[in-house]
Amino acid sequence: MLIVVLCVAAYTGYQIWLAATAEYETMPAVEYVVGETVSAKGIAIREEQLLSGHAGGDISYLLADGTHVSKDMAVAQRVSDPGQITDRMKRDALETELENLEALAAAAEVSVLQTEALVQHIYDNIDQITENAAVGELAPAQDLHFDILTQLNRRSLISDPNTDFSARIETLRSRVEAFGETEEMQDAVVAPEPGYFSKTTDGLESVLTPESIEDMSVEEFIGYVNDPTPPDTEGVGRLVTSHIWYFAAVVPAKEAENFREGRRVELDFGLAGQKPFIARVDSVVTEESGARVIVVFRCDVMSEALINLRAHKVEIGLSEMTGYKFPLSCVRYIGTQPGVYVLETTYIQFKPVNILYENEHDGYVVLSQNYKVLWGEGKDARLMGLDPYDQVIIGGNGLVDGKVLKQ
């Protein structure tokens, strides 16, 4: 008999809940991570210098953009015959394969290597090539290609210790010799000091420098951001001489309070192959009218994608918070206490909340997960706040704390 009574009570409560949910639109309180961001446009500023070379002929670049170079290291070479560029690349590839194969043939410990580890290494390299290709980074593919060949040859030695590479080695030697002696780099372009190489120039290398921006007005900044047309320039590349660089972004004055000097923020340029990174607010320059602000960020990350960045849009991540996200309209007040109405099984209950973040433009709030406050009068007062999966009412009329739902 008791079981029957309990079943009837449960069924009745369920029907009441169904009727209530039909009358009120609800949303569950579930954890949500929201990031506060500011969109802006700006311009990159670096310590850099043009690399000049002899006029005429064709340029053979020896390094990928973003490569760190040492003083007097060759970064490019002028050749009189364009075919020499292709021949040099082919010869370099053959010499690399030959060196790897000769070293492998002379190794004495290959028998202790594990086949499974080699196979995994090969697959890892193939995966890396695929990932790089997907984001447009093809420069590392050649080195990974040679590594895969080396691992395949090592696997052959493990499978058959009598594997003989002498025929392949002789073939490679003959093909290398067929190209003749390597030309001396008499027309080489070398780095005058350590830094990061880029084959791209834009004429602003000597205009936008950390020193020049110290006295630059907001109007001048905005002029470069909106129209970074470079002056005429000649050069076979440039050298960025410091891994520290700056990005000056134009932001609305109402956002200025978010950018105090020294604050760390996240910059996302949306570039293929470049993850967001942390930068620091170095300085803030305000327009005379107060309408616009230039925020200069100090960056210490350098890559192939970033070294060629000049005028670009950026998403500036200010903070990240975790809480319950709801429409702004569901927040109500009893006195000065903000709260939301929660749909319980047989009644409506007002629960106090703490607003972590309010976005009027997009119409939502983020509420604290762990907020509890003593709520109620006299002996009925108790700690109250939102609990996980509470059904918060986001649509409906006649919301009153303690209102009993119609049966």
Observed structural traits:
407 residues; alpha+beta; Elongation Factor Tu (Ef-tu), domain 3; 3 domains; 6-stranded antiparallel barrel; 6 helices; 26% helix; disordered N terminus
Question: What's a concise summary of this model?
Answer:
This protein has helices spanning 2-23, 83-106, 115-134, 141-159, 166-178, 218-226; strands at 25-28, 31-45, 48-51, 58-61, 68-69, 74-79, 188-190, 195-198, 237-240, 245-252, 264-268, 277-286, 292-299, 311-327, 332-334, 337-343, 348-352, 355-359, 364-367, 373-375, 382-384, 391-395.
SS-based class:
alpha+beta
Query: Helix amount, in percent?
Result: 25-40%
* Strand ordering within the main sheet: 2-10-13-12-11-14
| CATH first level of the largest domain | Mainly Beta
* CATH homologous superfamily assignment of the largest domain: Efflux pump adaptor protein, beta barrel domain
> Secondary-structure element sequence?
HEEEEEEHHHHEEHEEEEEEEEEEEEEE
The average pLDDT is 79
Distance between the termini: 24 Å
Strand proportion, as a percent range, falls in 25-35%
User: Which term fits the overall shape?
Assistant: flat
Count of discrete structural domains: 3
Query: What is the strand tally?
Result: 22
What radius of gyration results from the CA coordinates?
A: 33 Å
The CATH architecture of the largest domain: Beta Barrel
* Annotation field: number of helices: 6
Q: Classify the fold: give the CATH topology of the largest domain.
A: Elongation Factor Tu (Ef-tu), domain 3
Q: Mind summarizing the main beta sheet? A: 6 strands, antiparallel, barrel
Low-confidence runs: 1-12, 16-21, 108-113
